[in-house]
Amino acid sequence: MGADEEKLNLMNLDRAAMAAWFEGRGEKPFRAQQVLKWIHQHGIDDFDAMTNLSKALREDLKAVAEIRAPRIVADQGSSDGTRKWLFELDDGNRIESVYIPEPERATLCISSQVGCALNCSFCSTARQGFNRNLLTAEIIGQLWAVKRLLSQDNLRPISNVVLMGMGEPLLNFDNVVSATELMQDDFAYALSKRRVTLSTAGVVPALRQLAEVTDISLALSLHAPDDGLRSRLVPLNQKYPIGEVLQACREYVGDGRRRLTVEYVMLEGVNDSDEQARALAKLLQHIRAKVNLIPFNPFPATVFRRSSRERIDSFRDVLHRSGIVTITRKTRGDDIDAACGQLAGDFKDRTRRRKRLAVEANGGAN
Ligand code: SAH
Fold first, then answer.
1. Protein residue closest via CA to atom 18 of ligand 1
2. Contact by Cβ (8 Å): 340, 292
3. pLDDT tens for residues 131-146?
4. How many CA atoms lie within 13 A of 28 on its CB side?
5. Which residues are annotated as catalytic?
6. What DSSP letter does each residue of 23-80 carry, written as one string?
7. CA-to-CA distance for 64 and 66, rounded, in angstroms?
């Protein structure tokens, strides 16, 4: 390999891909297990430290491969213990991850795309537009880098990962699936399928495909009990309406013990009436689901407001009376813009959405 040829970043490979790569180089496939352990369990990015590999193999690897995660360029701590990291990618794009410690667990919320193309009206990431999909290394690298940092600082290790940061994970299918394979791999992060959750706005064909390759936990961003309102809040609904999405979710969770998490952002006067709660309960009648009510997190120039505490409690009580397990998600990290829907990163908007929005705001005058 010539010096100017790009090295293979081993962080892009899950176990199957890495075993195949080693085999292709005339090495035993179990090298993949050894190398995965060094990278993901020991946080090693230097081949010289991989002492159970021969010197010759280490030299060989150094010549053709590298181990590289996105670089942390900012680290913010909230008064409630939540932390947010800004990562810089090789092309200068920036993405965010959020760490949420609780007494019994610590959750890392990671991004799957630079920006998001779905344009949900209540989400600040949407305002930034969409740039590109993240590579597997850029997805798992968020976990890799944060895990290293937490152990240095003696903080509670990550027990749960949620793909609820920037982006729509099902629109970056292959790389997201590889990353979740690594999260669950015994030679990498060894998280159980209950502790890895993918949140989607409901890309129906991809949801069906997901069911074929994995059984990680699923969360659906529903946000409205009828198609008219949902299409306004989540434009993807025009393509995949509620009935189809819920059917695909029902198939995904099956009839075992698994349950779908339904996310429902509470927007004052928009989707938070008792009547809408009853309609939601009716929708969820025949599906094993629990509901997470998310108090809306405001961002500059949004037209939405957060429902009052009393309204959210009343909505929750209606669901409870219908026998639906419902919790109100605690707002965490909002003092550092780390709460749901507040992640913005920093990147060039290839969809030029910001410009379009500005034109719309001026009544299309120019
Ligand atoms: N695209 C995926 C994952 C990213 S969003 C999805 O749609 O599920 C993660 C969650 O935060 C979603 O449920 C999303 O609807 C919610 N969210 C977005 N903006 C929000 C805001 N301003 N306040 C509260 N929740 C928000």
1. 341
2. no
3. 999 999 999 999 999 9
4. 7
5. 96, 340
6. HHTT--TTHHHHHHIIIIIT----GGG-TTS-HHHHHHHHHHEE---PEEEEEEE-TT
7. 7
Pocket of ligand 1 (CB under 6 A): 120, 122-124, 164, 168, 199-201, 221, 263, 265, 294, 296-297, 340-341
pTM, entire model = 0.94
Residue nearest to atom 1 of ligand 1 (CA): 168
Q: How confident is the model over 247-270, as pLDDT tens digits? A: 999 999 998 778 999 999 999 999
Contacts of 272 (CB under 8 A, 6+ apart): 266, 307, 311, 312, 315
Dihedral (C-alpha) 337, 340, 345, 351: value to the nearest 10 degrees?
A: -130
Query: From ligand 1's centre to the CA of 265, what distance in Å?
Result: 8
Pocket test for ligand 1, best of 95, 110, 120, 161 (most atoms within 8 A of CB): 120
Tokens for 121?
């009206």
